[in-house]
Amino acid sequence: MKRIIPAKRPDGTPADFMSEIAGMEDLPVNCLLNKGVTGCGGTTVAIRSKHPYVIAMPFNSLIMDKYEWARKNGIDLAYYNGSVSLEDLKYQIDRGVTKWLVSYDSLTVLSDLLPISEYRLLVDESHLLINQANFRAEAIQGVIEVFRGYKFYTFMTATPVAEEFQYDVLNALEQVEIVWDNVHPVDIKFTAIVGDKGKKGKMDSNDYALNATVATIAKKHISGVYEGNAYFFLNSVAMAGIISSLIVKNTQGVSFSDIRFIVANTERNISKLHAKTKVKVHLSKPSDKPKKINFITSTAFEGADFLDEDGVIYLITNGSLNHTKVNIETTLPQIVGRIRNTRFANRINVFYTPNSKFGITDYDSYKRIVTDEFNLAASKVTALNKMIGEVQEGMEDILAKLIEVSEESIYLAYKTPSEFYRVEGAYKYQLSQWETVYKVYNASYEGLYSVRVNQTMHNYQMSNFTPNTAEIKASVGKKADFQSLAKLYYESFVAGDMEQCKYVANLEPILEEAQKVLGVERIKNLFYRKSDIRKALVTAKSDRSSSWKVAKYLNLQEGLWYSSEDLLPKLQKACEANGSTPPKYATKVSDYYMVSPKNKRVNGKLLSGFIIVGSKFK
What pLDDT sits at residue 360? Predict the structure, then answer.
């Protein structure tokens, strides 16, 4: 049975942090702890505890962020990961440190050197024990094998894994959930990005359409068409490099130094970015100053704190690349809460490319297939371990080949010095991917549904649409369809979206000129054809001399309303004074001004008239 802890202060008022909860001097022990929300200070409770603690964290970046926080707050602790030598580790142990931050990968080494029966263990972001099991098998298996040696242990997350997908040994632990009062619904809009199905060029593919769409969104944030700073969460360093290159190449005055990259600081990632950008890109930390455009990979999906009141979250995933898919029940809620103080906290946009190749439509069939694959891995383990027993000293090349064979299956892993084994976590993870892979990323899925994640209702709006190909291509410096851009300009003008008009006009300046000289309705009446618009402009400009004089004589004020009754005699007088034929109707004012028709009641009488939007002759 699940134990519930109300998030209340001793006086009964709602708590904002775990440390404020009545009786929360320390974390609950020997349990799976669902802390309910991100950013509520769970690790802080452990760090400030009077008890010795080892806090296992998934990423080195999280370790360093928490270590720097502890130093600034005068808390003595040490950390151990792959960058720390054994000599330094033993020095910290000898000086009596009792609070440790450690990576999943290094937990077994640290545990061998500490009297862990006297320590408490906190496994932070514990949902990743499943979500990353297929590519961090040895590290995660080490966590599972060592935790019972500690005096007490707590597996903590804000997004718990469903019981069916959890490790059997962890399902045996007590489940504890913290229930908060001060949570809010989050609206999550899923948008499927598809290329031009009628064409087969590279620029018409789903992948290119996704990258170019993101680059276009980024440019709109830079130009001010979209408000706020864009935070693109995407689990692909290569995609971040490709998209940022599109931005820099096609945005005047923007360089890679104007873009923030938050990725794991490894030679491999640096090499990937360099391959796509052709420059040396500076890597940032979550605590660094925000920029207009920010790319964040999985190193900061969980646990990292971003502070930016103007931060707008976008999640970008490619349905055909497994490593970029995001679990909607565990990872997505983590991303929703990453920017702690943003004024856009209750909304998130997800852009993805669908993958319609999956033919399975029910979970039971899917589970049977995954289970059969996992059972088949058992016979492979037996065969591989038999072969490895026959490998003699000096036959390292054969061992390497056996390991290479095992890596072809996500369910197999090798543990030094000489053992292959099945990865239970990879099996559980594949099962948990049903919702993500076969619902979200299947192109046939549409609709609206809601999922309750702890006390937060996530409202998912699914929509498949074809983006404005012309706008996107033009935005990234490719040949665009003028008619599509002209139509977008017209629709934006009619809708009053002047920022979008400005953006499209930057791509095709003739549209703004046509709107001023001909009027926006004329653009539509000319069927958005560039050649016809150009001819109409030439004709209009040849008449400009007399028309310009009439407009100048009228001298109507922008933003004011004039009745037709008053306008007609003014128009007639202006035309007569400048050698033009006097009009019979006040509607001719549109020859000289951009206007908006509006009826207005004056002294109880309803009069027709026009609001002057602007002169057609500057």
Answer: 63
